[in-house]
Amino acid sequence: MANIMDDKHDIAQIEKTYTNTSSQAGDPAPEQHDWTPEEERAVVRKADWRVFPMLCIVFGLSLLDRTNISAAYIAGLAKDLRLDIGSRYNIALLIFFIGYALFELPSNYIIRRLGARYWLTFLIIAWGACVLGMGFVHSWKTLTILRALLGIFEAGLFPGAVYIIGSWYRQFETAKRVSIFYMAALLTSAFGPIFAYALSLIRVGDGMYRSGWRWIFIIEGIATIVAGCIAPFFLIECNAREKHIAIKRVSLEKQEGDIEHPTLMQTLSMLMDWKIGVYSIQYFVAASSVYSLAFFQPIILRQGMGFSYTLAQVLSSPPYLFAIIMSLGFAWLSDKIKMRWPILITQSVTALVGLLIILYAKPPGVRYFGLFLATFGTQANVPASLAYGQNQTAKVQKRGIVAAAMISVGAAGGITGSTIFQSKDAPLYLPGMWATIAMQFLYSIVTFCMSMYLKRMNRLADEGKRPALEGVEGFRYAP
């Protein structure tokens, strides 16, 4: 089933078969349903309970593997590898995003041809091996090389998963699914600091294995490799009938024709759409804010708020749990009211308020409350921004391009988030905090302006003053 969009020839044959059958039987045209509600529910249920959970687990491990360096940092990594000298820690963080940005689109191109089952399996095992290797390094340079490879291998997971979700579900089904996907994965990040603290207590022998930070990488790397080995058994194929229903239930809503893989020139042409640049700005802000908090939250709790090492690790988890609950609630509300922009801006403003509280409140407890608001506001807008971009894209084959482009630019946000907080700015980190606050202002302004433009285009199309939006008759944006 994960390869629903992988076989153009099979899809064409399916469409031809059902078109001919309908015509011969005198049934409605292929734009009408030729399946029962029970069949449709069964197909969606298969996606919800087989592939979807596995994607959540694997993405959770990927978030854990790219951010566990912050937990290792305060567990002794900084001292043993001298990451506290100059900008070494920032370099080790940002190098991840170079490969991550460069290999987003190529990996998305491969997954639509090779198939999710084989390509994702390879990527998961490969990045798990990189994380495992970090447990045995003796130089910050070797650690940096492994972080670069980690970025290359992790690049294909998120856009590939979003592409599968966007191809499977209808317009106002996506926000809940993308949010559940992201927040279920975020659950592993919520307990990541506590898990990392427990792993850091492991001591073996008298040599390097007495360093607890090594076991954070070793155990989590092994867990990812195991997940990669069992992933093929969950990324199952679907039969011809299920493919037909899955494709048509989405394409009927958009009044599209057959779905085909875009060529390289068609892909480049799709990327010239200026709206993708706006969606990418939204995702850039969301990603940079998320990464800045993820990489520096334990350090801010330890140095900025004065908590002990143990408390800094344990207190990193509750803000994520709060973010998960609130984000799922807001995603449900967004689908319910069939509007995106009020939710996106509310979440952005919440993040902004939280950051100001962290920065200027005096009592540690109040500043910690601000961390709850900031974590929720920034984390929630990652899946919400992706759903926003997917909902404004009519053609299924273009959605994968939009997702990959957004996440590629989001990698640049990761570079920003990993560099705006400098060790020399401790304990308040004023430049980093104000840069994040300014970006949240930008997010709200861009989202409002873009949504008003899309609403105007819908109105003009309803009045017959605009041709088919996105080149698809009957399509309307979902701002």
From TrEMBL:
Localisation per UniProt entry: Membrane
**Taxonomic superkingdom:** Eukaryota
Tell me how this protein sits in the membrane.
Multi-pass membrane protein
Write down the species: Melanomma pulvis-pyrius CBS 109.77
What is this protein identified as?
Answer: Pantothenate transporter
Taken from the record, one Pfam family name reads MFS_1
Q: Which UniProt keywords apply?
A: Membrane, Transmembrane, Transmembrane helix, Transport
Using the record's annotation, list all stretches that form the Major facilitator superfamily (MFS) profile domain: 51-459
